[in-house]
Specification:
Elements (H helix, E strand, L loop, with lengths): L1 H7 L19 H10 L3 H18 L15 H13 L4 H20 L5 H8 L17 H12 L4 H17 L3 H6 L5 E2 L4 E4 L8 E4 L2 H13 L15 E3 L5 E5 L2 H15 L6 H14 L4 H8 L4 H5 L6 H9 L4
Helix pairs in contact: 2-5, 3-5, 4-5, 4-6, 5-6, 7-8, 7-11, 8-10, 8-12
């Protein structure tokens, strides 16, 4: 009886596939979360929006959190590239989208649910080449002075004190807006006149020494808040909200709050419209105009590449004329 049962069992041929190993399943949401968590907090919101656009281009039923990124292939990545270009997206935006897509499939590969061959194909989708006109501008010394006069002339003295310190620090340090709003009182060393940036782009730290005028403005702002001695309540934000009644709130300024302050100063001073990032461009341009070598400026700005620093140079034709006319033969 046992023999007949054995003979009735199907025989495994030499070409039979081995039983599949159980692989832990990962949802599209987990791939998306892992990728986002690998990015700096300051850059996540922009990537979220861009990946939402990419997901809907591929299939309108999905968004960035529900799209099955582990199924993305070369044709999908190529489609995203072509569609974004046809809709008039900037070269940098298209390349950022491609970078995000390649990052997602790399996460899927590291989770063991995406093949190396398919990842190589997606990574073979070429970046877009091209050059566009630079955005933004550099403010002149006269314009910065007008902004400071407008700040000091504010009907609420403490708000004017804060706004003047904000403008001077932004122009005198070249900090990004995200770095400005992340500063705490303890990051400013009153004795050495330095500022410690702990949450720079790419999680990089750096230390900057400020001019006497910037230090004086920050000291005055802290004095008005009764926080000149930084050992008292050191974890408080350096720049915080101030109500219309002049009450200093404990909450830090947001990036939108900084933009609103600068827009208000622009309107009151008559200075042409500018963005918060233009103050960073102003810092870099002024340093280069003073003859500071570009590698030193790169370090002060927190750039990894000199080419990035060069793109912030708004000296224009004036510097080209001065450079060639200064030649001595």
């Amino acid at each position: 009886m046992a023999r007949s049962r054995a003979t009735n069992l199907p025989k495994l041929s030499q070409t039979s596939k081995p039983p599949l190993k159980l692989v832990k399943k990962h949802s599209p949401h987990s791939i998306y979360d892992i990728y986002l968590n690998s990015l700096a907090p300051s850059g996540r919101s922009g990537i979220k929006s861009l990946l939402n656009t990419c997901a809907r281009l591929l299939d309108p039923k999905f968004d960035s959190t529900t799209y099955p990124w582990q199924t993305l292939n070369f044709a999908d990545a190529s489609k995203v590239r072509a569609e974004l270009l046809s809709r008039g997206y900037a070269v940098a935006t298209v390349n950022l989208a491609l970078s995000a897509i390649k990052g997602l499939v790399k996460v899927a590969f590291n989770l063991g649910i995406y093949s190396a061959d398919e990842m190589a194909r997606v990574h073979a989708v070429k970046r877009v080449r091209g050059q566009v006109l630079r955005k933004g501008r550099s403010l002149t010394v006269a314009e910065v002075r007008k902004l400071l006069r407008a700040a000091k002339g504010h009907c609420c003295e403490i708000r004017g004190c804060r706004d003047a310190a904000l403008v001077l620090l932004a122009c005198g340090s070249g900090l990004r807006v995200a770095e400005l709003v992340a500063l705490e009182v303890r990051d400013f060393d009153v004795e050495s006149g330095s500022i410690h940036i702990k949450r720079g782009k790419g999680r990089k730290e750096r230390k900057l020494y400020l001019s006497k005028r910037v230090v004086k403005a920050l000291n005055l702002w802290l004095e008005r808040r009764h926080l000149l001695e930084t050992r008292h309540q050191p974890e408080r934000p350096l720049f915080c909200r101030v109500t219309k009644a002049g009450v200093v709130m404990p909450s830090a300024l947001s990036k939108a709050g900084v933009a609103d302050i600068l827009t208000n100063l622009s309107n009151r001073s008559g200075v042409a419209r500018f963005t918060p990032h233009d103050l960073r461009r102003t810092f870099i341009t002024q340093l280069l105009d003073q003859g500071v070598d570009i590698n030193t400026v790169r370090q002060l700005a927190g750039h990894a590449n000199i080419a990035t620093t060069a793109s912030y140079d708004f000296r224009g034709e004036k510097e080209l004329i001065r450079a060639t006319q200064g030649l001595v033969w």
